[in-house]
């Protein structure tokens, strides 16, 4: 019966009716501390579920209006009088259904309830409304944080492209009145390893060490180009010089490993890095 109704709500594909039943124990998460609450649930596609919910709200509101009308009637009326009242109530009821969701700020596209509709029998506390608003604000904050994260990622990608091409892409996100940053094109440090640069050795372990040496040698050359780039600020120049020094140190370590292995195998050591590298800057 309508007087037992606690709530009508839908969420996406779910439509539920909550009614009071003193013989049952509460299973609802929406009514804290109450007992005797029973939830009946149906599932269908979202548009159908929402339509059912709107019709159910309308039916319940009709029940409330009739209940209020009966309370104001001092004596029994004829069927003609009742029919006249129903005719007069029909037009505003239809318009109310049309504007139901527009007036209700708490009803989302995939979530609605009898509590949200502002029913006269609804006994929802302000705390529950505040909880709903806080939940929506929390979701909004998470979306804003995610959006800012994606914007920062886009900025980094655009800056990398500008360093390679020398031109800032138009997709770079700018705030109102903000000028795009000036980015200098990075000096070219790409290199290609020719097959004839790799020594041919019968020993696989020594072949691997020699290959690592050739690759590290190219990395040292690239680090040197970056460190020698003109018009660098002091901090960047210092950092690149340190990177160049570290690359040279690693190259020497690889050569030491090669020489140790060659001596172990009864071969003469080499001095590749000292012959091919210029002095440290």
TrEMBL record:
GO terms, biological process: establishment of epithelial cell polarity
Coiled coil regions, renumbered to chain: 126-153, 237-264
Cellular compartments annotated: Cytoplasm
Organism: Nyctiprogne leucopyga
A Gene Ontology term for the protein's cellular component: bicellular tight junction
Domain FERM: 1-67
Protein name: FRM4B protein
Keyword line: Coiled coil, Cytoplasm
């Amino acid at each position: 019966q309508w007087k037992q109704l606690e709530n009508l709500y839908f969420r996406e594909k779910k439509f539920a009716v909550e009614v009071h039943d003193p013989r049952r124990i509460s299973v609802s998460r929406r009514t804290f501390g109450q007992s005797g609450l029973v939830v009946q649930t149906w599932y269908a596609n979202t548009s159908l579920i929402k339509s059912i919910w709107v019709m159910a709200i309308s039916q319940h509101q009709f029940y409330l209006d009739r209940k209020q009308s009966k309370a104001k009637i001092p004596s029994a009326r004829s069927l003609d009088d009742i029919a006249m009242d129903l005719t007069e109530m029909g037009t505003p009821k239809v318009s109310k259904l049309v504007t139901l969701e527009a007036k209700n700020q708490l009803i989302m596209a995939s979530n609605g309830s009898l509590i949200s509709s502002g029913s006269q029998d609804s006994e929802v506390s302000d705390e529950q409304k505040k909880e709903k608003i806080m939940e929506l604000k929390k979701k909004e904050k998470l979306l804003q944080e995610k959006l800012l994260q994606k914007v920062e990622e886009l900025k980094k990608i655009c800056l990398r492209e500008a360093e390679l091409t020398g031109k800032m892409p138009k997709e770079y996100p700018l705030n109102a009145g903000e000028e795009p940053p000036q980015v200098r094109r990075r000096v070219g440090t790409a290199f290609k390893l020719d097959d004839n640069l790799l020594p041919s050795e019968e020993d696989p372990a020594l072949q691997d060490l020699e290959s690592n040496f050739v690759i590290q040698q190219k990395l040292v050359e690239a680090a040197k180009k970056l460190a020698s780039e003109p018009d660098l600020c002091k901090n960047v120049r210092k950092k690149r010089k340190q990177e160049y020094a570290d690359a040279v140190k690693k190259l020497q370590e690889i050569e030491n490993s090669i020489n140790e292995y060659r001596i172990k195998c009864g071969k003469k050591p080499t001095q590749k890095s000292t012959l091919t590298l210029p002095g440290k800057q």
